[in-house]
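Recap from last week: sequence in, structure out.
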Amino acid sequence: MNIWFDITHVPPHNFFKGLVMRLANESHKLYVTVLDRGKLAKIVSTELAGIKNVSVEIVGKHRMTKWSVLWDANLVRLYKMFVWSRKKKIDISFSTGLLNCIIAKWKRIDSYTFIDDPQAFTYKAIVAFSTKNHSCLYQIPKEYKLSKKDTVLSALKEWTYLAPSVFTPNVSVLADYAITPHRYLFVREVSVGTSNYASQTADSILQIANLIPSDMPVLLSLEKKDKYKEYPQNWILLQEPLQDVHSLIYYSAGLISSGDSMAREASLLGVPSYYLGIRYSMPANAVAAEVGSLDNQQTISVEKWIEKTISLQERKPLLQEEVRASINEKFVDIHAYMYNLVTQHQQ
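Predicted structure tokens:
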């Protein structure tokens, strides 16, 4: 079969990567289109390099500005995807966004979407254009009214690549940074030049940097690195693509992020996490807080959270195992579900 995956951000790449590799090993032909956004294209190309039956192609660009979200990453990219797909024979497609669904509808092929934010303004369009949309939310708030075409999967998308059955932490990656397990913080600063963070104050991490003790080792992940010199110089700047970012998160004492994706990842890894952004009402964040350990500015101040997290360093490994085991009992295996969609399509 010829199967198409459209990747517009790092989390969707992580979400689909395991399935792409599994299907490639079974001799399916995989088309992977990637939006040129930050380090995304380099990450995808590096991690899928050399894999037989996988073709990675860059389609469209995101210049990390609010205007580019609408023009480059959507309108121009939609046209480029039409051009790219014209002579492609595709049997089935997977994505987390709208453009793939529109092209699939035009080509009359089945498309399957997986989202975690039914509040997004693209939700109704995604449901309308896709063959089947899935809301990966574990449970839906009572006030939400989802489409009858929607399928609710009892898990968060991040669990697809973070579940114990697919993710094994590798402590050896810490050696490159001379850090000790559970004795450092991981901090992530995202760009606000995207639609998700358009109303968010820039440089949230930079503004609270002075609250982190100077003797606490810190790994710094910057989506835009032009302001690196403004951060504490003893912080370790990470250079993407990383060998194993999730092991670095797993072995941290805690994570602070101005973006909610990595904050959810940390929570599902059993790591105390603090979301410094403004998307408080997003259901996926509420689920991550319920099943793991995800705080924000409405639940506790970042200063108190830092003090609490540092004080729990000794107990963190044990608490982490308990959290991971508990989540594993509650969530379904989305990877297996997606694989079954392909299998059913072959029949």
